[in-house]
Specification:
The complex is a heterodimer of chains A (about 110) and B (about 110). Chain A is mostly beta strands. Chain A has strands at about 5, 10-15, 20-25, 30-35, 45-50, 55, 65-70, 75-80, 85-95, 105, 110. Chain B contains no helices and eleven strands. The radius of gyration of chain B is 13 Å and the shape is globular. Classes of the chains: A mainly beta (about 110), B mainly beta (about 110).
Amino acid sequence: DAGVTQSPTHLIKTRGQQVTLRCSPKSGHDTVSWYQQALGQGPQFIFQYYEEEERQRGNFPDRFSGHQFPNYSSELNVNALLLGDSALYLCASSPGTATYEQYFGPGTRLTVT
Amino acid sequence: GQQLNQSPQSMFIQEGEDVSMNCTSSSIFNTWLWYKQDPGEGPVLLIALYKAGELTSNGRLTAQFGITRKDSFLNISASIPSDVGIYFCAGPPTGNQFYFGTGTSLTVIP
């Protein structure tokens, strides 16, 4: 049973560029959440997707957007990258929005130069 | 936004010792979760708590949901080298948005 998978593992982008990160949830899970984790800090909630819609959003600008596909996989898009966007981006899945027991993927390390 | 403060920030202990750490918030939580994160990996769920006063164990780990609903505690008994990592508390004070704590870094000296 595959857990949460994310791609790519690492990514280097230049300031001002756009990036797309991908996530496949754990089998049987239909809810995907995205987090940003800066070095030395705890993960910060970006948004959550369920039934292909954004259900909750954290305190992140509109440069951060997402999408969920019919197979429950998800993408995180970040436009106009800033140096401060350098972080580990984590995807977490859960079986519905009623449970808070989320399972995390290994993350995508994004470096903006 | 919501701040979850964890203490201590870091711990250095001898193998075999017991460990205690806690997490406090300014808001009431209805659910508390504890995660462990190894370097370069995503957090792994250790224990979930759903009721004030609840005490739940997972092997050598025991966590408690504080009766004020503004704090939670995690204990690790008889620590071993693989317990090394960063421990985070987390939970949703309102709705489904998750907040993570500041983390407690644990080092176990063989």
